[in-house]
Predict the structure.
Amino acid sequence: MELIIRNNAAQPIYDQIASQIKDQILSGALSPGDALPSIRALAKDLKISVITTKRAYDELESAGFLCTVAGKGCFVAEKNLDLIREQRLRELEGHLLAARDLARGCGVSRKELADMLSILMEEES
């Protein structure tokens, strides 16, 4: 598991950790049941406080992404695929709303925006 921490970012370090782990879980890079590094080991690797790492893990656990097994460590939780899809759809909707607002500000028509999206989707295939 690779995490990149930016000390000069506006986002708090614990949130950077939690966001990157969450993204890896949602993308499938981390699978249900995968063990995560211990809180201490991750803190040592990232050269940050154990408290910061613990807060990131606590955030992920409260959101249902991790489960802690006493004496064994933290593991990627079994996730409901429908719940993951719904979270991703909400994220996509936010991006599409931002694109719509930007398009309106630039005078791009609905058809032009749809054509742009269609071309981008074709390029990916």
